[in-house]
Amino acid sequence: MDVRVLTVRLFDAHCHLQDAALAPRLDRLLAAARADGVTGWSCCGVREDDWDAVLDIARRHEGVVPSFGLHPAYLRDRRAGWQDRLAGRLTGHPAAGVGEVGLDRAKEGLLPLEDQEAVLREQVALARDLGRPVTIHGVRAWSRVIEILRPFGPHRAGIVCHAFGGPADLVGPLAALNARFSFGGTVTRTHARRIHDAARAVPLDRLLVETDAPDLAPIGEHGLERGPDGRPVNEPRTLRVVVATLAAVRQEAPEVTAEATAENARALFAKAFSS
Ligand SMILES: [Zn+2]
């Protein structure tokens, strides 16, 4: 499959450009992605300590939209008063979203689920009050995410279900809460039947693509560096691989997938692009 034929713009709906594995060589990495037509990035913080770096990158690189939040894997680092500081950060940056937030039932050593849920609820409430899109991580927990979100009603500013892994029958209930569904490197796993079923169930106007760089590198040899753990360090330029694979799974032209996902992401983060 030739993944270089795309001539349309792309938008990376979820990544962590502030990560130490990417930040020192970011100029080069973003230039490589731009050469493939990527014109936008949703860059999500994961803990209070990285919000400054996220903001700095968004200021220096055109097309980067910042989001600030507490990721479930970093909740033990949170300090008293984080809610006020998150609110202040968002108020000071009207185009910023809330994220990455969520629930994780797979990773070991995290806070108990009920504690994760309490923090998620607070962040969703803040996103709702301030009218911000919210980016959610849900590992083996999308049903619980729905239960947390439902009492708030549809989230008018939109929800990004990042690295959505299904099941497909949750697409409807999440869409009813105004969710979009973002697919990344995991869609390239040939046996990821559940993810592929979910990818086919998502309407085109709710579809997004992401790299989650430096995490979730697509399967295959893409000339990526290896991290200290031996795993490939994902780069923004692999977005075209995700688009090509997702298009094949959905049996649509890659240009259609690229154009629709870029349009959907721009609409979601419209405040960052209207000036
Ligand atoms: Zn992420």
Structural classification: alpha/beta
The amount of beta strand, in percent, is: 15-25%
CATH homologous superfamily classification = Metal-dependent hydrolases
Strand order of the largest sheet: 1-2-3-4-5-6-7-8
What composes the largest sheet? Answer: 8 strands, parallel
CATH class: Alpha Beta
When the domains are counted, the total is: 1
Radius of gyration: 17 Å
Distance between the termini: 38 Å
Query: How many helices?
Result: 9
Overall pLDDT level: 95
What do these coordinates show?
This protein starts with 9 loop residues before the first strand and ends in a 7-residue tail after the last helix. It has a single domain, classed as TIM Barrel (Alpha-Beta Barrel), CATH 3.20.20.140. An eight-stranded parallel beta sheet has the order 1-2-3-4-5-6-7-8. It contains nine helices and eight strands. 46% of the residues are buried. The protein is of the alpha/beta class and 275 residues long. Zinc ion is lined by residues 14, 16, 44, 100, 162, 212.
Topology (SSEs and partners):
Layout: E1 10-15, H1 26-35, E2 38-44, H2 51-60, E3 64-68, H3 82-92, E4 97-104, H4 113-130, E5 134-139, H5 142-149, E6 159-162, H6 171-176, E7 179-183, H7 193-201, E8 207-209, H8 239-250, H9 254-268
Parallel strand pairs: 1-2, 2-3, 3-4, 4-5, 5-6, 6-7, 7-8
Helix pairs in contact: 3-4, 8-9
The structure holds zinc ion.
Zinc ion binds at residues 14, 16, 44, 100, 162, 212.
